Amino acid sequence: MPAWLWIIIGAVLLGLLSGNKGNSRKSSSSGKPFRIDHPHYMSEDESECSVCGARFREKVMECPRCGARFGTATENQDEWYEEFEEECDMDEEEEEEGR
Ligand SMILES: [Zn+2]
Asked: What is this structure's pTM?
């Protein structure tokens, strides 16, 4: 199958997924509170409150700081990748500096 066909299929699927949410134009921060889980590569996992941004280590369904009740939890792996790449960079640093 040619690559452009996959792109069209992907675009259609994305359209269907986002079309299901009626208020997709509004930012998600105005909706229900949710917990953002941040897996860490170097340290313990953290969770973040979508309302006040508090960080905590427990996987609780209620914010320890502002008391918001989380309906759902999403995972944000950005920090895991950042730390993972930093760890890789450290190994390669000597090569980079030797330019
Ligand atoms: Zn909070």
From this structure: 0.59
Element housing 73 (H / E): strand 72-75
Residues with C-beta atoms within 5 A of ion ligand 1: 49, 51-52, 54, 63, 65-66, 68
Q: Give, for 41, the enclosing helix (H) or strand (E).
A: none
Residues 80, 86, 90, 93: is their CA dihedral positive or negative?
positive
Domain boundaries, the chain: 30-92
- Measured in Å, residue 79 CA sits from the centre of ligand 1 at 20
pLDDT digits (tens, 9 = 90+) for 20-74: 555 444 444 458 999 999 999 989 999 999 999 999 999 999 999 999 999 999 9
- Give the phi and the psi of residue 62 in degrees, each rounded to 5: -145, 135
